[in-house]
Fold this protein.
Amino acid sequence: MKQMVFFLLIFFPAFSLAAADQAVFRRDGREQVVTGRLLAEAQDGGLLLLAPDARIWAIMPKEKIEHTHDAIPFQPLNREELSQRLLAKLPPGFNTFSTAHYLICYDTSRAYAQWCGALFERLHAAFMNFWRRKGLELQPPEFPLVAVLFADQKEYLQFTRDELGDLGGSIVAFYSLMSNRMTLFDLTGIETSGRPVPRNTAQQINQILAQPGAQQTVATLVHEATHQIAFNCGLHARLSDCPLWVSEGIAMYFETPDLRSAKGWSGIGAVNRPRLNRFAEYLHRRPADSLATLIETDRRFHNLEQSLDAYAEAWALTYFLLRRHPKEYVEYLKILSEKKPLIMDTPKERRKEFEKAFGKLGPLETEFHRFISKLR
Ligand SMILES: [Zn+2]
């Protein structure tokens, strides 16, 4: 998931849910108009608008020309409108393909797009079921969930340069909080291998992806798709201060699919081996305040040297809480889901909220350590 950080503005949440707002602003020398639902308005006039294509626009005071409230109710684009708008921005050669919850734009083979659509739908159903069984009723997504599939990595890199910069080369798939889209390129490599493509049925793609080397790439794809679902069905609110250990922990909890199982999704909640191995190794050098630093800020996730340990610890903590304290964990998630965009908690507030849900860190650390050390 790509994080955006806003340094300049202190935003206050807006509560005009029904009507749309309109902003005229100047960016890159061009006057632009965006109509959408006002998510937040800053003291100095900065705006956060949710557009009908699900993109969030952050408009800075110096860019703003005019801001008006509209009596017309806010409405997401329908699939046809959304599809046309997406295709207009993509390179030539793209098509769209719809499933119950997804709108897939692809220039891969249709079989590959269908395979991705089926995988996402399976994940979506499994995700909703999982939380329902835990007593958490989530909402169906307000917008179609958009995934853009590139056949060619070079084109993918070109298209994502604005968002990913040089990082693109190492990221095979990502979910963007601002555009609400998932962007990825063909994981199988068969589209660009020069081998004949048209007959690659879903089964053939499954076989390719079931190879050992492909597992990590599929995990990344499922990880990003989990973020997208979580931010669209009300588990987290986009641009709210949902701690990263929580959103990443959940994405990693789901990233262990067993694709060979024909029925459903048997991988949810399996021990995530690569994350557990990393955590076991981290345990030898893990500082005494590790749980505190993980919970109080997102800093460790943004530090290149510390981020893999932070991810591993976030997986371990999520796994532990879901196994040992599921009721408390779900109650905690409900509190986080209410958070408003761009209202940031202090480290103290985060810790207080956590300890209110799970008790003091000291005793929890002892229990957590004992639980994880016994995991095989
Ligand atoms: Zn993530």
